[in-house]
Structure formats: structure tokens, C-alpha cells
């Protein structure tokens, strides 16, 4: 579950005389991605895996300092507000020390973020976000003592300028210039024994302008900017790193500390792979999230001007009688009944794999307006086929020999999509994966033979 996270785990792992070595783990732009990416092969990501990775690093290298560089909120789907609320609860389980309020959070609505945070109690930070009176609704900076012996950290959060959503009055909040804000903080706080770490969701030209002009940053961690994803890059005196989006990877960077200098930066990205699967507390949290979604009736009517792209399985049966007849008693067609029994008929996280054409034109939208597309029908795999049906019907009226399966297929303009076993893996992942591999199952099912 498709949180934005940039995680920073800072811990000592060796001390040799005057030289100390610190290790940092980070990720970013989670966008509410609490579960794996859902990829057919080797799916990565998810808060449970992140929690296990942080635990592993903590055991090996000591107590972690965890920071987030913003954009943890979900930006899409009817469930985005509920998902963001539970994602913040998951971040609380990870025990973040500072969380940047980024553009995704502003899009969700600052009033909503503040409401959710009454329970999550995350240490939210934005150095350049102010209200109409010039007060900062979140922490301006966060100071951490002794991240390694003799070195403190000053965390600065710079929110990228963006538009406020309707729920937040434009007059109530404004975003100050990131460079001007940072320059004031750096001038006031820069001193020996203090490392200045910047968390930001700025990107591209805005980010580059800041990097080239800033003075005083030791490390800049960016929420998912493609230019800085590999090794740490030195830009105008600051080391710059960036995360992978949607919790798929966590970055690792380490550096030595000697004579008040930060030296020898190295780094790599660690995929959140299956070896980090299962985290009891996090898994329980997102079962509660699914239950919460089931209790919220997200009514989202099918648009009145929806194009008729889907024909429905009964139209397919006019020519493909046997395959459709066989599927009528199969589990796919009855997939929606499972949601009805479990109270998830309105759950967007479940619907996409239990209906046909989810939120596409005349596909399934909600219980009230589109039950004709409930269940996994022919067109969920073979694509919308109204044009194909209309073409075949025209051919039928034009030829007394028409059977629906004639030999002149090459002249057809609209044909059903060919489907392979890979289609199964779009939904059959994680706890819903098939007992057999998709390749093996494909050889045995119905009309695939």
C-alpha cells in the first residue's frame, strides 16, 4: 500500500580514535505505498519490509535517527485520505524523528494532516511554511545531539513551493523562498560540531538553483529525484542523494567524521525485497486500514457521459458460447460476491481486482451505478470489446453464413486482446498469490488450453 517517505537512519557503526563513521538509511516519496509495488516478478517495497530493514540496521549499528523528506501522503484514489491517515500511523511505528511536510501533504490538505497527526504524533517539520501571521505551524528545525560522538545534527526541512488545496485558505498559509529560508538558518546555526542536513521535495530546476546557491549544507536528501539516485554527488560543498519512490528501496550512505569534517561519503540502494517480508505490528495496522475502508461507503457514480467501451460477458456469449458458459460458474465471475461477504464492496483497494474495467468509462465505478460490470468478466483480461461486438454484429447482418468464427479474421478491425499468464500476476500477488506458479495455472484453466 498505491506512502512520501524519505527515511534517514543515522547510527554509529565504528569508532577508531579520532575518526568516527556514521551510517544513513533513507527512502522517499512513498505516496502512501504501504504494500509492495505489485510487480509480476520480484515485487518490492512496503512499510512492513521497511520496518524489518530498520530493525535489522538498528541491531547491527545502534539506535537509529529516522527522518522523512516529505510526500508520504497518497495522491490518488478515493481512499487517499484514509490511506494517508493509516500511513502516518505506520510511520509512527517506525519512530520517525522528523517528517517533512511536502507537496503531497499540502495536496491532501494541511488541516487533514494536522487532524491525522493528533493520533500519530509525528514530529512534522517545515522551515519555510508559515501561516498568515508569520508563525510556523510545524517545527522550523530539529536538533539531534550526538548522532556520533562529538557531532550534532541540525535538520532543516524545505518544502517546495506549490499550490494549496481548497480546504486550506491560500491566505492562511504561504511557502517562503527555500534558499532565503535556508540561508538565514545556516548563518545562525552553522558551527563546529554540527552537521546540517536538508530534507526537501524540490526537484529539477528548482532543486538545482538551490544547490548551486546554498552555503552551509553538509547533506541534502531529496524525495525521488532521478538525477541523484546512485552514489552521493558533491554539489557546491554538499553531498546530495535521492530516494527511490513508493518505498521500493532504501538508500544507504555512510561517512567518516574527523576533526569536525565529514569525509569519504559512500552509498548504495537496498531493495525492499521479500526477505524483509512480514512485520506483525505493521501487518495488523493495515488489516485495520482495510477494515476502515470497508466501513466507508465511497460512492463514485459512473459518469453519465461514459463511453460504451465494455460490452459485458453476455455479448461475448453470442459467439463464444462454450468459454462464457464455463466461466459463469467460475471463481472470477463470482469475485464480487467475496467483497459482499467481507464488507468490502466499497473498498477501492479490493475493487480493482474483483470487478471489470474499474473506473474506466462504462466499467465498474460503484455498487449503485455499475453492477453490470461486477466480477472479473471476459473484458477484464481481453480488454474492452464493444467495438469488436458491434463489428461482428454488422458482419452477421451482412452474411447469412456468419457464425462469429469465420475465416476472414485478417479483415477485422477490432479483435480481443491475446492474454498470457502474466495477466494473472496483476492481482495474484502477496497473500493472494496462486498455489501454483502463474505459468502452471495458465496451462490448466478453462479456455487458455
Describe, in plain words, how this protein is organized in 3D.
- The structure is a single chain.
- The chain has 449 residues and is α/β, with parallel strands linked by helices.
- The protein folds into two domains: 9-290, Purple Acid Phosphatase, chain A, domain 2 (4-Layer Sandwich), CATH 3.60.21.10; 298-385, no CATH class.
- The chain is 29% helix and 19% strand.
- The chain is built from 14 helices and 15 strands.
- It has helices spanning 47-61, 80-94, 103-108, 110-120, 178-189, 204-213, 280-294, 313-316, 321-327, 335-342, 348-351, 378-382, 386-398, 438-444; strands at 9-16, 19-26, 67-68, 98-100, 124-125, 129-131, 141-148, 151-158, 173-175, 194-200, 219-222, 233-235, 238-242, 249-258, 261-271.
- The strands form four sheets. It has a six-stranded mixed sheet, covered by helices on one side. Strands 1-2-14-15 form a four-stranded antiparallel sheet, covered by helices on one side. It has a three-stranded parallel sheet with strand order 3-4-5, with no helix packed on it.
- A hairpin with a 2-residue loop joins strand 7 and strand 8.
- The two termini are 34 Å apart.
- Mean pLDDT is 82; it is low at 1-17 and 399-404.
Compact description:
The chain is of the alpha/beta class and 449 residues long. The chain is built from 14 helices and 15 strands.
Give the total of domains. 2
CATH architecture of the largest domain: 4-Layer Sandwich
Question: How is the biggest beta sheet arranged?
Answer: 6 strands, mixed
Structural class: alpha/beta
- Per DSSP, what share of the residues sits in E-state strands of 2 or more residues? 15-25%
Give the termini separation. Answer: 34 Å
Overall mean pLDDT stands at 82
Rg from C-alpha positions? 26 Å
Instruction: Give the overall shape, derived from the CA principal axes.
Output: elongated
Number of helices: 14
CATH class of the largest domain, anyone?
Answer: Alpha Beta
Helix content: 25-40%
Spatial strand arrangement across the major sheet: 7-8-10-11-13-12
Instruction: Determine the CATH superfamily of the largest domain.
Output: Metallo-dependent phosphatases
Number of strands: 15
